[in-house]
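yo

u said u wanted the structure for the complex thing, so here. seqs first:
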Amino acid sequence: MGAGRERVQPLTIAVPIHRWWLWWLRVSFPLAERVWPVNRITKRRLLGLRFIHFAHWGLATRVPHRGGRRLPVPYVLFHTNYNGDLVSYVDAFSIVVADQLRLQLQGSYGFPGPEPLGPFRRYFFEKAFREDHFWCAYPEASVKTVVAGMALEDELGRLRAAARDGDAAFAAGWERFLERHAERL
Amino acid sequence: MTWLLPVAGDVAALRARIAALPAGDASPFAAIPGAHVGRLVVLDGLADPRGGPPSGPLLLVAVDADGTAAGATAAVAGRLGEVLAHCEGYPAAGDGADVDRWLRRHRVRDGFSLRPYPDATVEEVRRALDVRARLAAFAVQADGLTPAQLRAAFVEAFGR
Amino acid sequence: MSVDQEALQGGVLCGYAFPRAAHVFARFADPAAGRRWLAGLAPQVTSAVPWTAGKPASTLNVALSMPGLRLLGVADDGFPEDFRDGMAARGERLGDAGPDHHAGWERGLCDRWAHAVVTVHARDDGDAALDAAVAALAVPAGVETVVEELRVLPEGREHFGFRDGLAQPAIADERAGPWQGLGTPQPGRKLESWEPVAPGEFVLGHPSEDGELPPAPPAPLDRESSYLVLRKLEQHVATWRSWMLERAGGDPAAAEALAARLMGRWPNGTPVARCPQAPDPALDDRALWAPDLDEATRRRRFALLNDFGYAGDEDGRRCPLTAHIRRSGPRDAFGDGRRSRRHRLVRRGMPYGPAAPAGRDDDGQRRGLWFACFQSSIVRQFELVQRDWLNDGDAFGLGADPDLVAGSGSPEAKAVVRDVGGRAVRVLGPLPRVVTLRGGGYFLAPSRPALAALTG
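structre next:
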């Protein structure tokens, strides 16, 4: 079943937040995005989930964004591309980055907290929109295969170099490669 | 990059226009140089939790692409004009610069983002996937080969 | 709130541990025929009440497919899509293609054909006990049946030679559990402190791990009922043995080590994650049940069969990432046991067919495992495990590689194993097809009062 399966799935959410919470997000988002080591700490666990290709959080307050009419309440726009089961994605957020969810959504309307999982899942899915058109340049890819492939690409250069040094050297190099990277294949 | 655009007129017409877009390699996003992913989402209305009327309808356009923001904006303007024409204020009679300016006004900047392979271009991603697949196939083939056979098979598969 | 053991059917939360059983797939010519027969069986259905006066000679349980429920006048409303569709219709989603496709299933072994499956277990090993239990069903005219006989193999092994059914969820219920088994490994705590699993993961009408009642059909099916998934998995033992031996260079010990790595357990049940190099002889069946072994030691040894995880072995150096038990029950392999807790199954599988004779030759006999599992959501539990963990490897970083034992096979599939046949690391492929699906279905084991109400 796995081969040829389209793995990259989209998700789009708009979360209404209290206006007073907007100011916190306007401070905390740039901190988490750009200031070391806050960004490192914030992103490490999310990246560790290894099923998110892209995820974007933005703040919508006006339409048009510059100089347009003010929306009645601000919204966090969240859109992402992920691999695997959507419910597992949302549950992983609740379990693995519960504190970050609170820091981001505590000031949203109706936020039930990251756990128990059922109410949070409902809160989350109520705010989701169906994508009308979605396209991906590599729909069969997963985050894990891309990241593994990038690591293997570096190794391929070493293997090519070893191949120039004769049979025994290459065989030893191949064994070393398998020892370190076989599980990435 | 993300744009949030107010829909002008009939949402059903916009939806029909989007539904008519070809999928896969013929998608307009596929023609945007360096695009990784792209989406169009019609938001019928952003709910007002205080009980007011929903805001909208709105069109969310999002694309992740290599290169500069200006380049992506210009590419979106060029490839999605027939869709964008369903939105308020679209400068139908204007030139590319007008559409660029109009899009820039509607851009919602990222507050926070996540990319596990942040600097990789589409080509690099595809190459990484290809390398993994080829090395995996080779590793299966390599089991039990003598050193001489192993090296010969590797050189044949990957060159020197 | 404790599970109502009078209402719940037996075998769901606690297995019978009987040596013989039969699944009787039944199709009703008309609603009256089905209702009459089931009405007669309903009072005999075994409950979950513990046996205080010894084990009975036999047990009897009933589960109904969606077509069966419809025939009895139950509307589709409130049933989840997975159950309404049935297993055959979900084949594409499940990866049941090629030789596994329902077009090739054995006659009658499908929830499109069967309105009900009646399962009897016999306490005694002889044919007579099982025959009597099946005969006691008194199948009338107007009910067509297909009978599938099951038999436990010595030491509780399945046909590939591995002890089976060892890991079961411990249930957080004051009467139903916990017992020997597993809950959810807790982050930051010792493995020994598993958290029992909420009964609502397996029984409708009780809070699930989410702290909420799982979606349920209308009363009276909404309480003390459980969804049953059945799959007849034919095992190609000769292929399994030949492939292992050939890939191990003809060395039987290396072949056993290779098979153990791909299974995730040694044949006696020793987890590879705990003992990668050799099985623990203290876990042999004979050693576990030695008459001179004191109860505390026995309990400790049983715990060794299950009290392990994969945290700290993220790259699969101790237990391969592709090991069958790691994929079907990842425990804390995703870094936090809570991430897999909503995908647990109570497994009640049993072998069918004669034990395979020693050697690599195919004796032409058909044998395998009648897989059975209970859950409160088929899509979230069985289907997720089968589709996302066994037929696809991405959750474990294995790309599209399916599981050797329970996956749907792929010519590109491979497995990475370490320390086999004197080689540090090997990448083996293509993996042979060692299992073929011969039938299956989705059923609902209603509570005893619900069954009585439906047939009354």
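The helical segments of chain B are 11-19, 69-79, 81-84, 96-105, 122-142, 147-158. The mean pLDDT of chain B is 94.
cya
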